[in-house]
From TrEMBL, chains A, B:
The keyword Amino-acid biosynthesis does not apply. GO terms for molecular function: DNA binding; DNA-binding transcription factor activity. This is IclR family transcriptional regulator. Residues 73-256 form the IclR-ED domain. InterPro entries: ArsR-like_HTH, GAF-like_dom_sf, HTH_MetabolicPath_Reg, Tscrpt_reg_IclR_C, Tscrpt_reg_IclR_N, WH-like_DNA-bd_sf, WH_DNA-bd_sf. SMART domains: HTH_ICLR (SM00346). SUPFAM superfamilies: GAF domain-like, Winged helix' DNA-binding domain.
Length: 257, 257
DNA sequence: TATATCTGTTCCCGCCTGGGGAACGTGTCT
DNA sequence: AGACACGTTCCCCAGGCGGGAACAGATATA
């Protein structure tokens, strides 16, 4: 469940861990009850019971029929989170319109904990289905969004993230080590946009452009599609132009906020 | 902070309460640190510290600069929550298009814990600003969404919710007691849509139509605007037609899911 | 109707965990 | 240097929490 390079441990609180295990479980599988949860997590029913009570009182979960699901409060929290990130409205608008214009998948991502998290995603009409989903994370070395954001982070942050990185080859083209990565980052900085040439998923290519506020990078915007439609030429030409101008629009609108 | 009619208490876990107090606090005010949180909640720094560690490990919160904010993981959770509710895509599409068509505020809400929670909201170009926000809750007796949903809940559920209700007069028109409420619900069932005639906020009127799946109500869709534009005639004519046909579209598309 | 077997709930006990105080380390203002 | 923020760590001890078991309904099986 957690083969990730563990963070500094410090002191961690068991009850809270249990509570979030329950939440995680309910996220994956809604509508289950006390007994099922207790089995799944290896706790006694009474323990789970008091946790459910607590979470219910907090409106974190809701009793529905005979089972629980996550509460709508999370929608509220999510909208607060988006607001905290920066001017989300502009990003959303720009992503949506680019998706409509091109018909492909357009995403906006930011760095969090050394990974890329998708803040918003829009799919045009002939968009391919991908597994990425708003809020989920992907590695930085195998995605164009990740590499592009990484390229513009402060050098010490790059080092820090790169040090904790575990290069898992997702396809034949995936970057497999730091040297290769640093070269790639340099290339991105030179040309101003990042490429994913079937490095994360076979058959898919992406281009992405950085969105900066002054000198600090906020995130990146990318467009994704099948290699058949995304030829080398289009990727470095038309498509790169698209994401770069979209990034510009966002930058201009965020500048004065 | 919690003047609501308390639920059945049972046993509740203190650490988890503290954890969510921290989350709530960070939702309201991002970027604060250990000391500030400790002061605000009346706990020792060490206590707060271990909680923050736990939450950070869980990716619930993120350290940013010198302070914490809620993590993007919430976006993921939120999208799961929406999926669990029903076919959210259709709802979203229908709400958006109705908002664009009419230029006003359109919302979709469901009942949770005896209140209305907004699942989605879209504002057309000359939409008024309202305080409602996705995920937040409003009382059922003073909103058209609430009354409409309530009208189509099973009778025993209506009783249950009505019993726990505290009628707070928000404007001169707010419903102030059960008799009045039940009459209103009956009227809604007869005409098939609900009205809010400045009962929640002065100067604002709404119409809403129920969205059902077979006999169970899923939620309701509403349109909101200033009384100047929302005359009696338009409300019961054109605007009622709008929400009802939108509700129909949603019903037809959800039916086979 | 009785029996069995699922649920969810409650009770109580004893261990251990989590909350608090205080000391420590570090950086940033005077 | 000093003073005062901040976050972090350490340790203690009480009481909170996890767990087992008993209890209460609801549903199924005979």
């Amino acid at each position: 469940m957690s083969p990730q390079p563990n963070k500094r441990p410090g002191r961690t609180i068991r009850s809270v861990q249990i509570a979030f295990n329950i939440i995680d479980l309910l996220q994956e599988e809604a509508g289950i009850g006390v007994t099922r949860i207790a089995d799944e997590l290896g706790h006694s029913k009474s323990t789970v019971h008091s946790h459910l009570r607590t979470l219910e009182e907090r409106r974190v979960i809701v009793r529905e029929g005979d089972g629980y699901r996550l509460g709508l409060r999370f929608l509220d929290v999510a909208s607060h989170v988006r607001d905290q990130i920066g001017n989300f409205d502009i990003v959303q608008k720009e992503v949506d319109s680019l998706a409509e214009e091109t018909g492909e998948i357009v995403q906006f991502g930011v760095e969090e904990y050394g990974k890329v998290s998708y803040l918003h995603k829009a799919q045009g009409e002939h968009a391919v289905e991908t597994l990425s989903r708003v809020g989920t994370q992907q590695p930085m070395y195998s995605t164009s969004l990740g590499k592009t954001i990484l390229a513009y982070l402060p050098p010490e942050r790059i080092e820090e993230i790169a040090a904790a990185m575990e290069y898992e080859p997702k396809t034949a083209n995936t970057i497999t080590g730091p040297e290769e990565l640093f070269e790639e980052l340099e290339a991105i900085r030179e040309r101003g946009y990042g490429i994913d040439d079937e490095e994360n998923i076979n058959g898919l290519r992406c281009v992405s452009a950085p969105v900066k506020n002054d000198e600090t990078i906020l995130g990146a915007i990318s467009i994704t599609g099948p290699s058949s439609r995304f030829t080398e030429d289009r990727l470095h030409g038309e498509l790169a132009d698209y994401v770069q101008s979209a990034a510009n629009v966002i930058e201009l609108n965020t500048k004065f906020s």
